[in-house]
Model the fold of this input.
Amino acid sequence: MPTVSMTVNGKSVSAEVEPRTLLVQYLREHLGLTGTHVGCDTSQCGACVVHVNGESAKSCTILAMQVEGADVATIEGLADGDTLHPMQEAFRENHGLQCGFCTPGVVMSALDLVRTNADPSEREVREWLEGNLCRCTGYHNIVKSILAGAKAMQG
Amino acid sequence: MYNFNYQKATSRDDAISARSSADDGSYLAGGMTLIPTLKQRLAKPSDVIDLAAIDDLAGITDDGGAITIGAMTTHAAVANSDVVASKIPALAALAGHIGDPQVRNRGTIGGSIANNDPAADYPAGCVGLNATIITNKREISADDFFTDLFETVLEDGELITAVSFPVADKAAYAKFPNPASRYAIVGVMVAQTGGETRAAVTGASQSGVYRAADIEAALGDGLDAAAAKAVKVSADGLNSDIHASAEYRAHLISIMASRAATAAG
Done:
């Protein structure tokens, strides 16, 4: 089997994988990073969103081999010890989740929006969430959370 | 997913030679269609040849009267390109409404047009803007490139390297998207370039993208939106599925053409 190497949350990792191994399988099953979820497995729901070289991507639709050498960030890499990332804290403060299944993907997606648009409007947030499905919240508090998180990140 | 051999091509020649020596090879661009297809076991390639590491396949160049977009350029790169936004804003807008942000970060123009999904946006963009598809072997007019559902004139192993879009005098794309997938239920690119008016329709026909002659005639030189809206499009040969009937798609073609003409101004 071929070997794949990448950086995940700042750590170098390497493993032998079958070429058909998806990035999400590699993260969850090889590295034990189960914060990245598999929802629909058809690249629609966004529960599996991670960052690849800083850009959000659906890890259920990427082969682990494709990200050889890349810098991957998952939800586990955001908090600083017990201190939540401002975007995570905003979700807690604003009741931005109920069951929480979609939340890791939504947070990673939101951070990609803020990367290119530090002060998004409500409409821009709602449009950006096209690739993230939530079946609990009706999105309202997710949008509130992202707007608050973006503000908090501006300091 | 069936297993396969994975190869990361380092150059165009490397990709072409890997593909020709494989039993049943498949190029991998952004993977936004190929990987779901593999996951559903609808395809069983012996070898998957990843094009992502080939440096000179991605990028946007301004050639004055045209813009050339490398085959591995992502939808996000086209949507966010200052060059595309200033020269052919309709194309930037089209790319910016494909799928969702994560799909746009990975999906590529070359992968999209090689696949020729009958509901994809780029085929309408290419035909409407009278683009030229450049491969390792030849240059192909968009009019000749797309032949049928998921079919193009690409030969086995032929590699798309870039797409060249002439700068239109006026152009706009209007899409009635499927609310879940954002694929076009009907999408129409209306463009006027060098005195020629084009209306290319995606999402509607059973044989994929096509130029709507009746709409083009109605639009005329002045891009007459009201005349386009008044065209009674026949439902013959149009797709009918759970999302929309053929009659509804026929109706949407004139509406989308009219909206595109208004936006193109």
